[in-house]
Amino acid sequence: MNILFDLFFTFAYLDLISIGGAMAMIPEMERQVVIVHGWMSHQAFVHAIALGLFVPGPNMLHVFHIGNQVAGLPGALAAGLGMFGPTSFVLATVAWLAGGPRPPAWIERFHAACSPITLGLMAAAAWNLGQNMTGDIFSLGVCVLAALLTARRLLNPALVVLLAATLGAIQAFFSA
C-alpha cells in the first residue's frame, strides 16, 4: 500500500510542477522514477516514454505504464490519478472562480511568461532521453532528420515516427 502512496504523491508532485506540458517534465520524472525511487532503469524509462508516445492517445500514457510496471493495475491508477488529479482540480477551481470561458488577463500573462521556460525544459528532456545516442551517428542523424521534418512541418509526425522506425529497422537488418 505504501508504494501506491509513493506513486500517487510522486506523480502529483510532477503534475503540480509541470510547466510546458508533458515532455517538459521528462528530466524531473526520470530523476524521480530512476534515481530517487529506483523503480526502473534509464533504458526502461526511455522505452516507457517511447511506448507512451507511439500508441494513439494522449502523450502522457507512459505515466500509466510506469505505474503498472511498479505496482500493476493499482499502480497505474495511482500514478494516473497523481498525474492528472491535482491540476484538473486547480483548473476547475480557476474556471469556476473566473466565471466565464475566457481566462483572466493574469493567467494569459503567466502563460506567456512560461514559454521560454518550456523551451528550456523540452531541450533538457531531449538531452536526457538522447544521452545514450552520443556514440551512434546513425541514430543521431535520424533524430536530427526527424526534428527537421517535424519543425518545418514537412511531414505529419506520425509519418516521421514511421520513417524513423523504418530507417532503424533497415539499419538493424544490415548491421546484423
TrEMBL record:
InterPro entries: CHR_Transporter, Chromate_transpt
Transmembrane regions: 6-26, 33-55, 75-98, 133-151, 158-174
Membrane protein topology class: Multi-pass membrane protein
Hydrolase is among the record's keywords: no
Domain of life: Bacteria
Signal peptide feature range: none
Localisation per UniProt entry: Cell membrane
Keywords per UniProt: Cell membrane, Membrane, Transmembrane, Transmembrane helix
Gene Ontology MF terms: chromate transmembrane transporter activity
Assigned protein family: Belongs to the chromate ion transporter (CHR) (TC 2.A.51) family.
Annotated protein name in UniProt: Chromate transporter
Species the sequence originates in: Symplocastrum torsivum CPER-KK1
